[in-house]
């Protein structure tokens, strides 16, 4: 009887075996129903040559290669690191690599709890279980993950397994048939002009940190730049004489130049003359906005800061830095700006991404409704 080779894909180890170590050092275990040392005894004597003997010799050659390859299956962390490295080579941003690394890490920790130790142990059923886990998961505040959050985590895992399949790390792609959740179409949160002014007035400008925070929010509202773009803004990127700001390596590493309003420039000048010199540490790296200790901001720190002021304004709306981006685009559209100019301001690669603000801006639609609908006026 010919020996058979079977790859352990259930995540469990053969009876009597010990784990190979933590997840970072685990590999799939190869189990054979017949000891390799007995293969020679059970094969026909090669002294009797013939077509059957040639086929047996060829089978033994391929079987040996298969066993050697399967016994050295790369660990999950190794595949994760190789995947992130391939993205870095393609020019993906550090933030993209960070987020994808976090999402893959969540999946690997879950795999470890259910006994999956290698990529070949993941089947479509395993991924369905992961999807169910995300659906039933509750955050610290007791709320479930939003459908968009579930979508992002599942979509990334599907991309990762597609990459593994194309690179030859797995024979079949178990994520190919995975259906992603349907996400709701939601309009962005936008502040009215009165609400915007109320939020901007929240920082205590009698304190240095208040001047800094007011300047940051004024820049966000005036330019519509992203949170990470504000964090990386350098003094050399400011052209106060021309009233423009240059964004270096924005999303997809695209540079752009955007205008900045006079009011934002006034607060920016106050910050640069009164606050920044008091906190900057040598050597000065040229980052515009710094914390009280002279360090650069982190994304979460900025979000918490802006969210605090929006909450303190009691405007019955929530959000953080991105709210100013949405608000700027909507206010410009309502003021008569063409969507193509707004596209340039926001740094959108495609116009249809910008056109969501045509649904948010209700002012012109209201004017048309009032002018044309029979029951709009008494």
Specify the overall morphology. globular
- CATH superfamily (homologous) name of the largest domain: Intergrase catalytic core
Q: What do we call the CATH topology of the largest domain?
A: hpI Integrase, Chain A
Total of helices? 16
Q: What is the multimeric organization of the chains shown?
A: single chain
Low-confidence segments, ≥5 residues, pLDDT <50? 1-27, 29-49, 62-71
CATH architecture of the largest domain: Orthogonal Bundle
Number of domains: 3
Mean pLDDT: 81
**What is the level 1 CATH name of the largest domain?**
Mainly Alpha
- By secondary-structure content and strand pairing, the structural class works out as mainly alpha
Q: How would a textbook summarize the main sheet?
A: 3 strands, antiparallel
The main sheet orders its strands as 3-4-5
Distance from N terminus to C terminus (CA atoms, Å) equals: 93 Å
Task: Output the radius of gyration.
Answer: 29 Å
What's the short version?
This protein has 378 residues and is mainly α. The chain has 16 helices and five strands.
Architecture overview:
The protein is mostly helical. 51% of the residues lie in helices and 4% in strands. It has 3 domains: 5-70, no CATH class; 76-166; 193-369, hpI Integrase, Chain A (Orthogonal Bundle), CATH 1.10.443. It is built from 16 helices and 5 strands. A 3-stranded antiparallel sheet has the order 3-4-5, with no helix packed on it. Helix 8 packs across helix 12. The longest helix has 20 residues, at 51-70.
